[in-house]
Amino acid sequence: MLSIKNLHASIEDNEILKGLDFEVKPGEVHAIMGPNGAGKSTLGYVLSGRTEYEVTEGKVEFEERDLLGLEIDERARAGLFLAFQYPVEIPGVSNMEFLKESVNAQRKERGEDQLTAAEFLKKAKTACAQVNLPLEFLKRGVNEGFSGGEKKRNEIMQMIMLEPKLCILDESDSGLDIDALKVVADGVNSQRDGKRSFIVITHYQRLLDFIKPDYVHILADGKIVKSGGPELAKEVEASGYAWLEDHEEANA
Amino acid sequence: MSQWLANVIDRADSVNDWLSPARQEALTRLKETSWPTRRTEAWRYTSLHALENSTFTGSTAGVTAEAPVITGLNSIDLIFIDGKPTTDIKALTLPAGVTISPLTTTDTAMQERANKVFNQVKPGEHLFGMVNDALAQQGVFIDVAEGARIEQPIRIVNLVSDGVESHHRVLVNLGAKAQVTIIEHGAGHGHSMNTAFAEYVLGTEAKLEHYRFALHGQDAIHIGGSHFKMGESSRLNSTIVGYGSQISRIDTDVVHAAEHAIAKMNCVYLLAPKEHFDLHSLIEHAKPNGTTEQNARGIVGDKARAVFSGRILIQPNAQKTLAELHNRNLLLSRGAQISTTPALEIYADDVQCAHGATIAEIADEDLYYLQTRGIKRSQALIMLNFGFIQELVGQMPNKALAAWLEPLLRERFAMMEPQ
Questions:
Q1: Any CB–CB contact under 8 A between A48 and chain B?
Q2: CA-to-CA distance for B225 and B186, rounded, in angstroms?
Q3: In a domain, B334, yes or no
Q4: Would you list the DSSP string of A15-33?
Q5: CA angle B17, B21, B23 (to 5 degrees)
Q6: Structural domain for A82, as ranges
Q7: What's the pTM?
Q8: B261 vs chain A: nearest CA distance in angstroms?
């Protein structure tokens, strides 16, 4: 589904990703862990097409298409979804208008009919209920005045509505208490159907107790330095990221 | 000397009604006032050239304007077309606590009450205010009794047809603890000329929800103002929405004449190509502990021009004043223009004030966010541009009005957006 080869990316001439290789097959859940500044969020931004980031080398294929050649919105319509760590607030655009536009843009791409107002509302109701957001939130501006937890749940709600093929969750656990974390994890787990894939970016192992990954990768200094099964996350939990320094010295 | 003004003065001499003493006084001042030029500060960015020597000969036969219907508003409508009432005001069934009299009333008790509002709030030196003082024989006086809470909004519709000149006045008195919603709804077709001034006196703890819609056509000339005098602990929530016209100028002034009053004022303008809109505002804090929050936002299309002049004046004893004034503008093309001058004039030392004016740009981050959900860049730009003013429309307390206005503005905006 997703194949990343030797990906290098910079922002303002600062190289952040330094030759990243990574493969995701349909239905798989990959966790990406790593210390602050390793390039975890950058990976999400680069895959989504954020223009401030420049890809200087490498190839990314998504569903057999050259992902890097697509516009931001084309990537989304191709089935890529990024749940943001810090979603923006857009007061003048209502959640309702925003969601309708997004859902219908995706449906159009897939050759499906636009949802009627009633169909849309029904779907939105279910999605809101799933992440514990009151329906009134739809009338408010996009993320306007939402708490940190509400913003994260709103991201998951959008994910449920948009039915993407590949979901990238960028620290969807940060700043959440245990109850909110469970809501987010339940929302994600409800979307696991054996075909949809996930990349779960996180600093802490905690989220992975609730979203069980198939693979865990450690990202450090712009590269994947270690890959393994769920047990790797436990190791990190026990020993932290300090061992990475030894690893880098050994590599040097 | 302007031909048009000379003609006004001629006509004013023959106006004779119960307001004549006040009219004559204004006329005297008017005669001493010279026609504004580009060097006149209040008209620096708004040219009156189009009016200077104009004559308006009257309505073309057969054209009858109709008052726009607003679904779900359930308002008491007072309709004036070309300066003449088409509503029989005396025949209206009104809620207890409110009296509405036409300016032509012969009831001396009402005249006496109206006289306590007429020219008591509006600043004296506005040229077109004086014209209105002298000529506005039509309009209404609305008196809300102490403690009366009027649920039903009162809408004053003022329509002007092509070729017509009309002058309209609204006077409103809110007794202590009275509550009311008043909508000044103006629209004009073709090349018309209209002055419309409204004066509001708010009693102690009175609450006024106010709207002014200046939805005149591109060839119209509309000049007017909404002026408020705040009583102790009174509340004002005002929203002004303007299209541009050949000349469109609105003055909105607030005087905090007593302590602890709160005025929240929003203004939205959406100017299609070549239109002109000028918003002038003076907020005076004459007493301590007052609060003012003013937000004016506009989208300016190609070759259109917006003028904003906002001044907050805090008098020496008006300590503990909280005042904010913001003007934000979105220019849709290189040919669009905004002249903005926000100003704070503070003579008290213990106040909190902020002001600012910006030419806004759509944040890349917002655009990116919408695109990551599959929305095309062009569509995302439209949503964000419109969202810029929709935010203030969404703050209108009356949801029926907001629901009526939003699609109108969207439609207008869709025509303006460069493809």
A1: yes
A2: 12
A3: yes
A4: EEEEEEEEEE-TT-EEEEE
A5: 75
A6: 2-251
A7: 0.85
A8: 27
Size of interface A-B (CB pairs under 8 A): 84
> Which segments of chain A are extended strands (E)?
2-11, 14-24, 29-33, 53-62, 65-66, 80-83, 90-94, 141-142, 166-170, 197-202, 215-220, 223-228
- Name the residue in chain B with its Cα closest to that of A78: B374
- Which burial class, exposed, middle or buried, applies to B93 when counting CB atoms under 10 A from its CB (0-12, 13-18, 19+)? exposed
Would the CB atoms of A77 and B374 count as touching at under 8 Å? yes
Q: With an 8 Å Cβ cutoff, are B373 and A98 in contact?
A: yes
- Residues of A whose CB is below 8 A from B375: 73, 98, 101-102, 105
- CA–CA separation, B401 vs B385, rounded Å? 21
- What are the Cα distances from residue B108, in Å, to B88, B103, B111? 19, 11, 5
In which element (H, E) is residue A236 found? helix A231-239
| Nearest alpha-carbon partner for B196 in B155, B148, B135 | B135
Q: In CATH, what number is assigned to the domain containing residue A182?
A: 3.40.50.300
- Which phi and psi (to 5°) does residue A107 adopt? -65, -40
Span A77-103, mean pLDDT?
Answer: 94
As for how many domains chain B has, the answer is 1
Q: How far is CA B62 from CA A208, B59, B164, B220, in A?
A: 75, 9, 13, 19
Closest residue of B to A85, CA-based? B369
User: Which residue's entry shows tokens 């975890």?
Assistant: A40
The CB density around residue B305, as the number of other CB atoms within 10 Å, is: 20
Taking CA atoms, what residue in A is nearest to B406? A92
Per-block average pLDDT, block size 10, for chain B (419 residues)? Answer: 92 92 94 92 93 83 73 95 91 96 94 95 94 96 98 96 94 98 93 96 98 95 97 98 96 98 97 94 97 96 94 96 95 91 94 90 91 94 90 95 94 77
Find the length of chain B.
419
Q: In this complex, which of A50, A92, A102 lies closest to B390 when CB atoms are compared? A: A92
Assigned domain for B248 exists: yes
Determine the pLDDT at residue A243. 73
Query: Is B312 inside a domain boundary?
Result: yes
Q: In angstroms, rounded to a whole number, what is the distance separating the alpha carbons of residues B24 and B227? A: 21
- Residue-range definition of the domain harbouring residue B214: 3-363
Q: Under an 8 A CB cutoff, do B374 and A105 touch?
A: yes
Query: What are B369's two structure tokens?
Result: 């966010």
β-bridge pairing A2-11 and A53-62: antiparallel
Interface touch B368/A72, C-beta < 8 Å = yes
Specify the pLDDT at position A37. Answer: 87
pLDDT at B414: 86
Q: How many domains does chain A have?
A: 1
**CA angle, B382 then B385 then B391, to 5°:** 120
Residue B68, domain member (yes or no): yes
| C-alpha dist (Å) from residue B124 to B28, B33, B40 | 12, 11, 16
CA distances to A107, A175, B192 from B55, in Å = 57, 68, 10
pLDDT over 60 at A248, yes or no = no
